[in-house]
Description:
38% of the residues lie in helices and 21% in strands. The protein has twelve helices and 13 strands.
Amino acid sequence: MSRGNVAVFVPHVGCPHKCAFCDQRTITGSTAVPHAEDVRRVCSQALAEMDSVSESEIAFFGGSFTAIKRDYMTELLEAAAEFVGENGFKGIRLSTRPDCIDREILDILKKHGVTAIELGAQSMNDRVLELNERGHMVDDVYSAARLIKEYGFELGLQIMTGLYGSGESEEVETRRRVLEIAPDTVRIYPVCVLKGTRLAELYESGEYTLAGMDEMLDIVAADAQAFSDAGIKILRIGLHASDGVESDLVAGYYHPALGELVRGRMARAFIESHITGNSADVYCGKGMISAVIGHKKENIAYFAERGVSINIRTGDALGSKEIMIGREIYRCI
Length: 333
Ligand code: SF4
């Protein structure tokens, strides 16, 4: 094992809510509740197996970490803190709800070596938050983000596209407000409707309809482009296959290579805005050839339908994520 973060899943026990889209046991793939000895075991194992952990973090994910009982939270943090610092991990990262952040909690997190906090914002539209039973408002995201930055933590925002009641204008509003907050990182999760959730009921009753994958890819590609242009690092697009989602999926935008589909859309948008005639020579860095071709050659087909042929060439001088048309170079995520 070379690098990467060490993940410790703290399931639904951490969360007093039940959002319309959440089946936390499915997302974490586990109902087991970890304790200090489990944290120590996974950290020790990583130290033994990884070449170096100095750039890696111990990550608590799965529920709302700062909403769990205080003594349980400190038990986990104290165990993790033993592995942070000299010869150990770079820090600790965790995810939580925006309304579970205050100064007292941030003091505790700081004391235990936490370096990054990710907030589940999901949408930055109050009506969408209410419809999806989030139990917090947009203002809570602004307040928590402000405090997290004031304390000097790395701030991450997680958003969910395609929620119940969220159309294009709500997605654009979410994008605009995320840019206004300017987090260090984002994760973009197009909604997955899971068995046993309120969204599944709404979907099955016909109350909640979802736009097609094609439309969603355009929205997520626009998000990713805007965040990347603003210097916000995109940590993840779409749920992992290992999140155990496939078996419980009722509807939504799950795809095992969603990030690659989005990169294909981003490459398409750049090419489209730079073609001048009925053919274009597109020079690709090594990591961009499949994105330019698109999933199942969809970009080639897309341009062919518009009477444009795309000639793909390898650009040896280009970076792995770069494309060049004429003199214009585009760097994808
Ligand atoms: S706050 Fe997070 S963990 Fe809690 S119910 Fe909502 S999505 Fe699930």
